[in-house]
Amino acid sequence: MPTPKAVPQRSHEAEPDLGTMLFQIAQLAAQASAPHAYCQAIIDLLATRMPGKNGFVALADEDGPRLLWAQDRRVSAPPESLRHGLTDLLLKRGRSMFLHQVEISSMLSRGQIRLIGALPDSWMGVVLKHEDKVIGALVVQSYEKERYCAADLNLLDQLAPYIAQGLTQQLRQRPCLGQGPERSDRILSVLYRITELSQSNAPLLELYGGFHQLIGELLMADNFYVALLDDSGKQLHFPYSCDDHSPVPEARPLGRGATEYLLKLNAPVLLNYQQMLTLADEGEIELLGRTSQCWLGAPLSHDGVALGALVLQDYNNPIAYGEEELKLIGYLAHHIAGVIRWRRAAERLTNNQQALEQAVLHRTQALEHEINERRRIESQLRHDALHDELTTLPNRSMIMQRLHQVLSIKARDPNFHYALLFLDLNRFKVINDSLGHLTGDRLLAQVAHRLSGCVRGSDTVARLGGDEFAILLEHLSCDNDALQSAERIQAVLAKPFYIDGEEIYSGTSIGIAFGLSQYQSPVELLRDADVAMYRAKQAHRAAPVVFDNSMREAAQHRMKLENELQRALELNQFEVHYQPVWNLASEQLVGFEALVRWRHPERGLLLPGEFIELMEETHQILPLDRWVLNQACQQFAQWQRKYPRLARVGVSVNLSSEWFNRADSLDVVMQSLKQSGLSARSLLIEITERSLLHQPDQAASVLRQLRRLGIKLMMDDFGTGYSSLSYLHRLPLDVVKVDRSFISRLHEDQRAEAVISAILNLASALGMKVNAEGIDNPKQVAMLKQMGCQYGQGYQLGRPLPAERVSDFLAGKSHTR
Questions:
Q1: pTM of the predicted structure, to 2 decimals
Q2: Residues 6 or more apart from 210 whose CB is under 8 A from it?
Q3: Is 642 exposed, middle or buried (0-12, 13-18, 19+ CB in 10 A)?
Q4: Chain centroid to CA 603: how far?
């Protein structure tokens, strides 16, 4: 033991007697009830000599410092690990340190240590050694302005060996039960009180806390839990747990925890940390939660039947329990098991009696409840069958019932006036695709709420499905009442909706069918109001449209055309024509555009303007686009093999906006190239600005993938779309095609010339080429050449040709003009 040295004075006050402090440390080591109490007393003693009452004691371990005890006013919970902190550095260096906040911050910024807990203003630590072996470290820290000094460190250095000796003494000793009569009296007293407690009226769950308190009078029981098996013996639950370091364990099926290991042995078990690791390595147990340094448990067994277990743990002292405690816990557990079994049997008997007494009453109540519930369910089913779940509005079935009723009234009273409004929300698909279906549902609910506030009590608002609503207006004085109601509804729905902080605009298209005597069924009314709504949507203006008979004829024509187009797809009535594209400066052929035509069996050859828009609306455009792509790739691959000079000539194919909402769009293009043998660099995909409107990010991603394959990209009809400039610089485009509307006015309108010039300058700045379509006279060719336009196509340069005539054209046997 080192000889105490004189300690430099901290101030002008008289220096405290070092011998007195050493005597106090020896007293604390002998009198403290446990290592934790000893550490607390040491910190309190040091606080009388130096700043602060914050500190901790850590034990040295191969895996890094292990916290034994801590007291910190700034940190509510002790840290799980001290690795890579100041304490770890202290033990690695093996010498005392004191640091101030600036020095600690510097070490943190250099990555020498990590901050554990709060950043102190002043920190001081010493290494604790006993018999030349490092057993741990003592650390004190201050968060106040008063800092530690060299004198404090010198004093702590001299006290450290004696503190270490006391700590070793505390770690080696366990609470003593006494000997002889004293020991027996204490145990008998506890057993008597356990019996007394079990006979009280307290429920079983409260008894466990009493058992814990009584066991704590004989053993160290800071960390204690009761585990019980359920009636099946396959589930383990924990009705009582008191642990400073772990939460209450959750109920679990029997597994390989330490508790299950104890139940399997059906005998008291004492394990230290190393023994638990060995059992885990051997597969006997699975370590769950924080592993304790000393684990003591005994089965709650009665007449050879295991009910559960009592377990005590110590997370710091590996010798907290010994053989004496092992025997004692087994004895106590056996006694407590009898109490638990008796109380459980008594509770079951009481519960059975109460259940029997309540059975008739419950059954009577159950029958009454079943009758009432059946009536409620029938009422709810009737309501659900006639109402929309999302908006709670009447649904299609209910509005059809109401239409039946008003038709009957109209048949009896010709002066009865009513009207049916058919509503379809604008931009709903865009909102759904961009903001998600949950936002779309919430928008529909808000729309329903607004619509309900726009009508009278005698009117009916219904949701037909999707974003379609119907409103039945009754008892109208004149037709203008319905128009005013529709205009009021449009004004209300034109206002923004607010959902999750987003401002959303939608609006609506409204068709009106007045209740004329000609209507015989609700289906006719709903059909005509739908037709009028469709006409309103086509008009792209916020005004309701009233149905007339000409609309029905247009709708019938549209349906006929839709059916004919479906047959055309099935019977291969479409064909591809090819229009040449020229380099205006060199007058060299640079490509062809694949253009679809419909060979109608009665009307002859139809241009895309007569059917493409309808096919896009009905989604028939997808199979058509795929067919055109396959045909163009196969045909052009054949021409390239027959005419080698076409190796530098490409073919362009238009793809509709629908393709950019599909996950397989890239696969379809790659499959067409693979099956035809056409090189990717010979294919040019034309897209419109509308393709980018709904899902611009997804469309841009698909285009980039196509570009990486070597496929060239062209934006068609440039300048006529929605926000050309906002897309142009974001997309990997090779060519932009100037719309024919500008080319047709080129030699007549200076503004058209200015627009084309601006497009050429912009494309040049972005490294893109420009193709002018719709060139119909020599003047346009000359002006475009002068302006620097690279490519051109149109009737002046070459009309679209069927595939068989393109072969003659390529062979030099014909021309296209």
A1: 0.45
A2: 194, 197, 202
A3: exposed
A4: 55
53 contact partners, CB below 8 Å, separation of at least 6: 43, 44, 47, 71, 73
End-to-end Cα spacing for the chain:
114
Ordered strands of the 305-314 beta sheet: 252-253, 235-242, 223-229, 305-314, 294-302, 269-272
Rounded Cα distance, 388 and 465, in Å: 8
DSSP-based three-state secondary structure for 175: coil
* Euclidean distance between CA atoms 184 and 205, whole angstroms: 28
Indicate the helix (H) or strand (E) that contains 421: strand 418-425
CB 732 within 8 A of CB 707: yes
- How is residue 320 written in tokens? 């907290």
DSSP 197-236: HHTSSS-HHHHHHHHHHHHTTTS--SEEEEEEE-TTSSEE
Long-range contacts from 667-676, C-beta under 8 angstroms, 24+ separation: 668/626, 668/629, 669/629, 669/706, 669/709, 669/711, 670/709, 672/626, 672/629, 672/630, 672/633, 673/633, 675/630, 675/633, 675/634, 676/630, 676/633, 676/634, 676/636, 676/637
Contact 575, 608 (CB under 8 A): no
Residue range 599-615, pLDDT digits in tens: 999 999 999 988 888 88
- What is the maximum span of the chain, computed from C-alpha positions, in angstroms? 128
The string of pLDDT tens digits covering residues 301-319 is: 877 788 899 999 988 777 7
724-700-501 Cα angle (round to 5): 80
User: In which residue are the tokens 């029905």 written?
Assistant: 552
